[in-house]
Every structure is written in structure tokens, then in C-alpha cells.
């Protein structure tokens, strides 16, 4: 057990901690991003690689971030500088914290735009726009939204405002209480959607496609995408989980709690896939439709099922809620950093960080219409045809998160004392040996190999 005095408040209970971690991890990554990436990467093989990455890379890195946070008892930047100074390691390890703040900024800029899409769909569901949709009209409902920068900006602003207000006001406690009800409800809604999907004729085909790996459909970039998404979906590589860990009391078992978060996050993603692809297959939609996939697919399902108007509203409300809690966790590190580095108050920091993020979000909005043919790095073959949004996504999920995650686990595996790590994890001998082996060899080598092969 850590002998250092705790410098700030602890989570009131393990449940509160787990809820906050699930609130950050379960979000658009599970319900929006996982399905469309699976669709673009050909199905089962992508899912399998993703699951392996979650287990062998994501889980040990999540545990590493929490144990560093609990030892450091500070924000990620100070935590890394304190721990590396105490262990007489290079001060460069602080870069893990710095890269995290930048990553959070870049991700939130587009996350908020997609959160805005979900808000727009609450309105569509409530006004009966899903009724009697066909594959074509569902496509144009979404296409209409995408082609209109002013509408997108309005919804992006609304989502960003929701995030800023919570972070500025520090009322996250109320949200946590809401999460206790709303996150399980989201799971129930997804199960119902899977139930509906099971009645469509595409179900068997979709389930087989999702669960049977066909490696001829997965290229190297798909493998990198699967690994990057393991980081994105668990909110890793940004110091967010490290910051949470600093509130973790000594009696919480890190391994067990990490496993709960990982399982919940993964189950939600798989349910989303099982809900969406049968509708895709039954209606002859394109599985590789990209970021619009769920927004073209789910409205069709809601339009066809009994009670679909009510369920449609409920579903998009819950999706917004899940996105909101993740968005808050993304703004938080930026605000903490500003608060510490500048004389600004928390409220001022929240507004400054929020407005800066909102401004960058405009680039993502334009990527889907006015700038849809603009490819800033198009001169480099690899990035040909990638919009600003594509580049932001690539830079964060495929580069920054895996690199900072790699640095984190290398630090814990190779630069910290075995005994200290061991007492933090509080595991049996054999469990700790296994953990060490994965953390020192499997996870880092996995990240490096996936990187190297995709270059
Ligand atoms: N994990 C969140 C999701 O899957 C997104 C997120 C990424 C949140 C990074 C915080 C940090 O939706
Ligand atoms: Na997630």
C-alpha cells in the first residue's frame, strides 16, 4: 500500500469511481465509431483483433494509468514529474501528460460535432422524421444534416455548451447519480435493439459476418485502426484515467475494477454492432458507409419497429448522455492544466478551453461539406483523400494515443520498482507474474509491431 499521505479527496465509494470510469469510457466510441470502423474494415477479423488489443494492451495500460495516478495523487503532468523525479528517471516522462492534454483537445473538437449529430437526431426522432423511412430517405435525412454547416454548427455549439457548463460548474456529482440509472438504461435499449434486429432477415448473415474472422478482408491499416480504437474506447493515452486514479483509495482492487470497466465497454460496443449490422444487411445498406453509418441505419430501424418514435427519442437521448459524460472527461484535463498554468479561475479556464475546442470543431464540420474535397496532407500518398476530420482522427487514435499509452506501460513495466507496482496491484504471485509479462513484453511489443507494420 502507498505510504504517502493523500493530498486530495478520495472517491466516496468504489461504485462512484467505477461509474466515473465507465462514464468516460462508454460513449460515441462504442456506439458510433466501433460499428463504422468494423464496417469499413470488413467485419469479424477487425472485431477479433480489436478484442485481442483490448485484453492484451488496453487492460494492462488502464491498470498502469490508475496505479500511476494513485501513486502520484496529482494531475497527470505533476504525477509523471513527481514519480519520475522520485525514481530518478528522466523528466521527459512528463511528456506523457503533455501529449495527453493535446490529444484531449483534438479529440473533443470532433467528438463534440458528432455529439451534435446525436442531438439533432433527438429532434428528428421526436418530430416523427423516422416514420416510413426507406434506405434512400434515411440516407437523405442524414445527408441533409451533413450538407448544412450552419445546422451542424448550432448542434456542435449546443453540445459543447453542455460540456462547458458542467466542467465550469463542477456539478459532475449530479451527473454521476444520473449515470447510475442512464447507463444501464442505455444497455437495456441496446439489448432491445438487438432483439428487434434479430427479427430482421439480415440477422444471421450479420452475426456471422461480425463473429467469423475473415483475415483476407483486414489490411495493415485495419489492424492499426483496431489497436487505436482500443485506446480511444477506453479513454487511454490521455492521462484521463491517470487523473481518475489519483482519486482512487488504497482499498480498491485495480485489476478487478479495470476488468469491470473493460467488459462493460466491450459489451456495449458489441451490442451496438449486433443492433446495427442486421439492419444494414436487411436493407441493403453499405456496411462501409463511414461515420454516418449509425445515423443512416438506426432511424430506419426505429421507423419500422412498433413504438419506434418513443424508442428513437429515448435512444438518442441516452446516446447524448453517454457522449456528454465522455466529453466532460475530455475537457477536464485541459481545464485543469489551464487552471494550473495560468492565473485563470476554473470557470474562466472552462470557457477558454471550451471555446478553443469549439473553434477547432468548425474544421470537422466543414470536412463533411464545404471542405469535403480538401485533403491538407494529400501530397503524401498515405494521407491522400483524407479530410481534416480524417486527419484529426488519424493523428489521435492511430498515433498519439498508442504512443503515450506505450510510454505509460513501458514506464510502469521497466522503470518502476517491481515491489511498488506489485503492492499497488495487490495481486497473487502468479497473477502478478502474468501481469508483468503482459505489461513488459506483450503489450509494448504488440504496439510496436502494429505500428511498424503499418508504416
Ligand atoms: N472513450 C470514449 C468513447 O468511447 C471517448 C473518449 C476518448 C473519452 C478519449 C475520453 C478520452 O466514446
Ligand atoms: Na468507449
From TrEMBL:
<feature type="transmembrane region" description="Helical">
    <location>
        <begin position="223"/>
        <end position="245"/>
    </location>
</feature>
<keyword id="KW-0813">Transport</keyword>
<dbReference type="InterPro" id="IPR000175">
    <property type="entry name" value="Na/ntran_symport"/>
</dbReference>
<protein>
    <recommendedName>
        <fullName>Transporter</fullName>
    </recommendedName>
</protein>
<dbReference type="GO" id="GO:0015293">
    <property type="term" value="F:symporter activity"/>
</dbReference>
<feature type="transmembrane region" description="Helical">
    <location>
        <begin position="257"/>
        <end position="281"/>
    </location>
</feature>
<feature type="transmembrane region" description="Helical">
    <location>
        <begin position="90"/>
        <end position="114"/>
    </location>
</feature>
<keyword id="KW-1133">Transmembrane helix</keyword>
<comment type="similarity">
    <text>Belongs to the sodium:neurotransmitter symporter (SNF) (TC 2.A.22) family.</text>
</comment>
<keyword id="KW-0769">Symport</keyword>
<feature type="transmembrane region" description="Helical">
    <location>
        <begin position="182"/>
        <end position="203"/>
    </location>
</feature>
<keyword id="KW-0812">Transmembrane</keyword>
<keyword id="KW-0472">Membrane</keyword>
<feature type="transmembrane region" description="Helical">
    <location>
        <begin position="429"/>
        <end position="452"/>
    </location>
</feature>
<feature type="transmembrane region" description="Helical">
    <location>
        <begin position="347"/>
        <end position="371"/>
    </location>
</feature>
<feature type="transmembrane region" description="Helical">
    <location>
        <begin position="45"/>
        <end position="69"/>
    </location>
</feature>
<dbReference type="InterPro" id="IPR037272">
    <property type="entry name" value="SNS_sf"/>
</dbReference>
<dbReference type="Pfam" id="PF00209">
    <property type="entry name" value="SNF"/>
</dbReference>
<dbReference type="GO" id="GO:0016020">
    <property type="term" value="C:membrane"/>
</dbReference>
<feature type="transmembrane region" description="Helical">
    <location>
        <begin position="310"/>
        <end position="335"/>
    </location>
</feature>
<feature type="transmembrane region" description="Helical">
    <location>
        <begin position="153"/>
        <end position="175"/>
    </location>
</feature>
<feature type="transmembrane region" description="Helical">
    <location>
        <begin position="399"/>
        <end position="417"/>
    </location>
</feature>
<dbReference type="InterPro" id="IPR047218">
    <property type="entry name" value="YocR/YhdH-like"/>
</dbReference>
